[in-house]
Amino acid sequence: MAVSPAMESTTPDGGLTLEELNQIEVQRRLAPMIYLGILMLLGVPGNLTVLFVYLFKFDSSTHRTFIVALAIIDLVGSVVCMPFEIIEMNFQYTFYAVGACKFFRFNNTVVALTSVFLIIGLSFDRYRRVCRPLKTQMSVFKAKVFCCVAVIIAILFSWPVFFLIGTRHVRLPYNVTGYDCSTDDRYKNTIYPVVLNGVLFLLFVFAIIFLTVIYILIGKKVFKHIRFRTSIETTSLSSISSKKTSSTSLQSNGQQAVVLQKISNIASQSGDLTPKHSDYTVKFNPAKQSQTKGDPRSKTKITRIAFAICLAFILSYLPHLVITVWTAIKGGFIAKPGPVTSAVLPIVTRSIFINNVVNPLIYGFLDRRFKRIVLKSLCKRSKWNIGDAH
User: How far apart are CA 381 and CA 254, in angstroms?
Assistant: First the structure.
């Protein structure tokens, strides 16, 4: 194994202890640790904000149930998984706590798989509501049951980690042996790690295919609905404008009330869901319609959020899974250890943690109500702080 210049220049005789080699590796991994630290600083307050807003400001619904469940899982990832990864990189070659290694690697796998199943459930619920609106829909209770079952299934798929993960002895320069939290030496050259990572890889591929098909069908349905609604609104507005002109010409004959009644009938027959006694100038007010429960624009917004969550998950999880499977197949390092490898590869491998941080940002950009509530709360707190200062 090649020796870096830093190692060669540490001592005149060229001999380094395990602790010194570990410290050199820690310095190389400073960038990945800072990267995870930033994700923690974003993930913890972000997911706590999501929990507060959706639990106390939004009405109960299946969408809210899945969002809250995802926020809890993402919070666990930010509070438990990320700190462990930072600690593990600080003891890259001196990780002797086998029990902690097994538990936290198991926890990481459970969190990742639970996210997969929750996103599948969220997307399937969207599909049913958009593409099969007249069929029986998932209730809030069933959504909660699904979330609990998702955690149980994730645990069942993750239990082999307890057996396969442990201490891996690493040959280091100067004839020194390091202790790494990775695939246990007893299973390193067996088929078991490959089988486990292969199963996880197949689960991920299935999830990608399933989600891709689901959102293609949803996209087609939403596009058709938008075209149909635009056509209906254009026709209705044209009819109302024409009838309004006719009613003006008939005012002298005392027939205005009769014509206005016909206008109302035409508007109601064109598919508008606004109550019959509403004035026609209000029927096509987007601000009013967006506040109506079950409004198509609201459904489209929720669908966009679900799609963004799904896409972010795929993009963040794919690099992690490729590296994991590649490592399992090789039975060791996929690249020669060195400053660049130690700085870049851990970031790529831990790309999955982006998924624990990005969801609050998605809600902030795509959900105006969520953003309005957060900004309103921040403004109130700012005013309180200013008042206290005076």
Answer: 59
Buried b (16+ CB within 10 A) or exposed e, 295-333: ebeebebbbbbbbbbbebbbebbebbbbbbbebbeeeee
Tens-place pLDDT, residues 245-258: 555 444 444 444 44
How far apart CA 319 and CA 317 sit, in angstroms, is: 6
Mean pLDDT value across residues 181-203? 87
Matching residue, tokens 């989600």: 211
pLDDT tens figures, 115-145: 999 999 999 999 998 888 888 899 999 999 9
Asked if the model's pLDDT at residue 291 lies above 50, the reply is no
How far is residue 173 CA from its own chain's centroid?
41
For residue 288, name the pLDDT band (cuts at 50, 70, 90). very low
Cβ neighbours of residue 131 closer than 8 Å, sequence gap 6 or more: 217, 218, 221
Angle at 115 between CA 111 and CA 121, to 5 degrees: 145
DSSP state of 137: P
Distance CA 317, CA 355 (A): 8
What distances in angstroms separate CA 163 from CA 94, 99, 108, 322, one per listed residue?
A: 20, 11, 15, 22
Q: Supply φ then ψ for residue 254, to 5 degrees.
A: 75, 25
For 19, residues 6+ apart whose C-beta sits below 8 A from its C-beta are: 94
Fold of the domain built from segment(s) 5-213+316-389: Rhopdopsin 7-helix transmembrane proteins (1.20.1070)
Q: Which ranges of the chain would DSSP assign to H, the alpha helix?
A: 5-8, 18-28, 30-56, 62-76, 82-90, 98-131, 140-158, 161-164, 192-249, 256-269, 280-283, 286-290, 296-330, 339-349, 355-366, 368-389
SS3 content of the chain, % helix, strand, coil (to 5): 75, 5, 20
User: CA-CA distance, 57 to 209, in Å (whole number)?
Assistant: 34
C-alpha 299 chain-centroid distance: 19
Alpha carbon distance 148, 91 (integer Å): 35
Q: How many angstroms separate the CA atoms of 200 and 328, rounded?
A: 12
Give tens-digit pLDDT for 198-235: 888 889 889 989 998 998 998 888 888 777 777 776 77
Do the strands 165-172 and 176-183 form a parallel or antiparallel pair, or are they unpaired? antiparallel
